[in-house]
Design goal:
Strand content: under 5%
Number of helices: 5
Structural class: mainly alpha
Largest sheet: 2 strands, parallel
Strand order of the largest sheet: 1-2
Number of strands: 2
Shape: elongated
Number of domains: 1
Oligomer: single chain
């Protein structure tokens, strides 16, 4: 079960209640109904909390990325603000882990180095990523 609050004290003092994942997805779907997601679209989350919206926006943008430049553009166009430092730290960590997971899924693999045909590395600078393989 998703944790929507860290403590009753934080709710009382800061009105901190996190948006559940299914609501985040529904809201982003509504936005995409009127304006399709693009890598370069700028998003600002003025009360980012632990990053629920930021992470889902980044996930959707990463699915559109074809190379390292796209990934950088996707990340650089997402902004978040929160009054609590621990929330900002958690948001950054979650987004960092998402990017690392995507890259490591491509760069660290099972194979036999002596049989190159068993390996398929992504050249993040020059080669396009197979759209069916990104953001598994």
């Amino acid at each position: 079960m998703e944790k929507l609050i860290k403590s009753k004290e934080r709710v009382k003092k800061f009105a901190e209640v996190y948006t559940p994942e299914h609501i985040v997805n529904e809201m982003l779907d509504m936005v995409e109904d009127s304006e399709p997601m693009r890598i370069e679209t700028t998003f600002l989350e003025p009360a980012c909390g632990n990053g629920n919206f930021l992470v889902k926006i980044l996930e959707r943008k990463l699915k559109l990325c074809h190379n390292a430049d796209d990934i950088i553009t996707a990340v650089q166009s997402i902004y978040g603000v929160d009054i609590l430092a621990d929330n900002v730290k958690e948001s950054k960590q979650r987004m960092f882990e998402l990017i690392c997971k995507m890259v490591m899924e491509e760069n660290i693999q099972v194979g036999n180095f002596l049989k190159p045909e068993t390996l398929e590395f992504v050249d993040w600078v020059n080669k396009k990523i197979d759209k069916d393989e990104r953001c598994k």
